Automatic annotation (TrEMBL):
Any single GO BP term: membrane protein intracellular domain proteolysis
A molecular function GO annotation: metalloendopeptidase activity
Stretches assigned to the Peptidase M50 domain: 130-471
EC number assigned by the record: 3.4.24.85
The name this protein goes by in its record: Membrane-bound transcription factor site-2 protease
InterPro entries linked to this entry: MBTPS2, Peptidase_M50
Amino acid sequence: MLIQTTWVALLLGFWSSLYLIDAFLKSKKASARPYLSFLDKTGLCISICQFRWYTCIFNRIFLRIGQWRPRFMRIWFTLGVFFSLLAMLVSIFLLSLLVLNTIRQSPVEHQVLTPVMPGVNLPASQISYYMLTLLICGILHEVGHALAAVREQVRINGFGLFLLLVYPGAFVDLSTEHLQAVSPLRQLRIYCAGVWHNLVVAVAAAVVLMLLPTLLFPFYTLGTSVVVTGVMQNSAVSGPRGLKVGETVTRIGDCHVKSISDWSNCLSASMQEKWTGHCLPLDLIKELDTSPSNLLTNKSHHPWEVIDCCNGTSATHLCFTYHTKKSAETKYACLPARHATDRPMCRLQSDCYVPKVEAACVYPAVDNETRLLRVFHGQRPPLLFLGHPLDLYYSVSLSNYVPKAAFIPVNLPFVIETFCKYIISLSGALVILNVVPCYALDGQYICHAFIELIFRPSIPDPEIRSLIYWLVIFFGTILLIVNVIFAMWTLFL
């Protein structure tokens, strides 16, 4: 909660400072004229919690691309019309179903509309992905409108970017007179182009995500091990002897790790296994044992009490427990952990049968939640981890993509994968949101053009068509507002 309050304070401080500086420069005679001239030349505009940039430099580019292959562009944007109208029906159905199920107290399994709040349900480490993805999706959405406008001979006045509080976006300025002069079908091609381009971008990102193993095959290997991409600072596996970024992890004990799912399964299996020890000859145990000679046996201790026969005096030794064939009495020995764990693994005393040598299966003398794990990584000796397996799980970030050369970045597959997932999610959300027949959204203009196209021949009275339009818009607006309220309620509940 403290972190969220800090972010809010910094955000409000930034926008307040920016607005006050803007107002100060405009109010002073010495700076007002050059400052206003600077804003006019650069196309910048500052208002309350909003920063805008407007330019005409892209108009020629839009004109050239929009006039490329006119027949193909006409078919392309006509497909966008069919998709957008179908998406409008699907979006209304889904949002209506969500409201109905919420009222019945039987909500759907997955939220159709979920607000993204930085610091609330968006981790700080993911904010850069979110901001960049939202900006790209917004730009491609508006580029779709611009190209369709060129195709339908509607003038483009300019293009711009904006930052509203923490949400970036884009906009295209079209000639209102030209737009109203074209037919409803041509208007539909322009209004639906943004949603259509969002769908295309989402599909392209999904294709890249599916083909990612193939695309990265020349640079990365899959299915043999996992690579460390991050280690939490001051954790049990950090430091000079801990795990390093770029090292490969192949095993946890005798459990092979070929993927991240294997890593999770191995740690889960270690939590379920209570007794995993190592076979040591009794003579070797006596030779290596550094525990005090007056150490008491389990006869003087409670069964659940953890014995520290090393007295915490050594960082390289660990207290082990064992028993021999001749005596069922539990014994303790302070042994060098690395030397002991290099011996063959065992789960039962019978696993340590060696001809003519009396051996014992020694187990770490720890509580029921603690495990001694050997993590095989890189070319160095195995990492000995003593603690709860979940601590190990949350302390390390891994990737299935192992670089084939040292100069290849280990985080590149994660960046591409995360970016594609955000593109699919946000671009898909823009499709569902923008096609709703609601005020100030593309759905409002799509609905108006569609009603004019369908009902103008059969209903010549413009007032009746206008009434139908406003009823649909009113329903869509209320539907979206109710969904937003329910989504915010669920988020902060």
